[in-house]
TrEMBL record:
GO molecular function: ATP binding; glutathione synthase activity
UniProt cross-references to InterPro entries, sorted A to Z: DcsG_Biosynth_Enzyme, GSHS_ATP-bd
Domain of life: Eukaryota
Phylogenetic placement of the source organism: Eukaryota, Metazoa, Spiralia, Gnathifera, Rotifera
Cross-referenced Pfam families: GSH-S_ATP
Domain Prokaryotic glutathione synthetase ATP-binding: 130-262
Organism from which the protein derives: Adineta steineri
The protein's name in its UniProt record: Prokaryotic glutathione synthetase ATP-binding domain-containing protein
Amino acid sequence: MKIACVTYENENYASSIKNEDVVLVQYLQEKGIDIKIEVWTDSDVKWETYDAIIVKSPWDYHYKLDQFNTWLEMLKYQNIRILNPYDRIKWNSDKHYLQHIENAGLKIIPTFWLKKNEKPDLLKYFKLLSTEKIVIKPSISASALNTFVHNQDDIIEAILKIEQLLQEQDFIIQPFMNQIQTIGEWSFIFFNGEFSHSVLKTPKSGDFRVQSSFGGVAHLKSAPNQLIQYAKKYVEIFAKDCLFTRVDGLDIDGQFFLMELELIEPYLFLLHDKNSFERFYKALKQLLNIN
């Protein structure tokens, strides 16, 4: 079985992150897996020669969404196995998926949606969310692109900014959660539905973004079993048949509140836990029925 591990073209886009893909592919090759790294935008790749495609790190997909969707459609049309599955990738590419999760009775950070071309009354959301700060982010994005925190004192600036951005797409509004700065944001990594490892991500002082490109730091950390079981519920309902899933959220008084369910291109923190490579390998074999 021939497999492609898909990444992106611009290596400088996430240069602050160690490239786990190269180490992962080398590990899988040493295990006898016929796998190669390919760039999803490379027009010279003969995708029809592959039996399965691992959509691992197309970290520029949200800049080229139409092209990305066309590429996925092409793979589906050619009956090439996609990991994670096509329908899960499409569903997960727009943060409106959070509505589905909330409707299923699972906890998410309280969220309101702003429609494209809407003229929002941002002041009302401070009261609706019982918060002193609001977080505004695009419905389709990654790596904290066009994500802002505002309080009521700078709301005029926020309105001008968001009205311009709303000409392009929908946005979401959430309360700023102090737990990000005081405790950190949990990431739980699952392979084929089974828990592998967890990390706790913290922003640099004075910031709210936990991504390493903004100075955030992630540490391998054992999570309370209660939180792991909470996180697993999201996987069981919304990430069936997924090779990998990252569940990001906060511990609020012992309960888990989802921030994002990452099924498309999550950094899996494999280099933080050396045993995770073996778990990934076993999950891949199981999903693809490789002996």
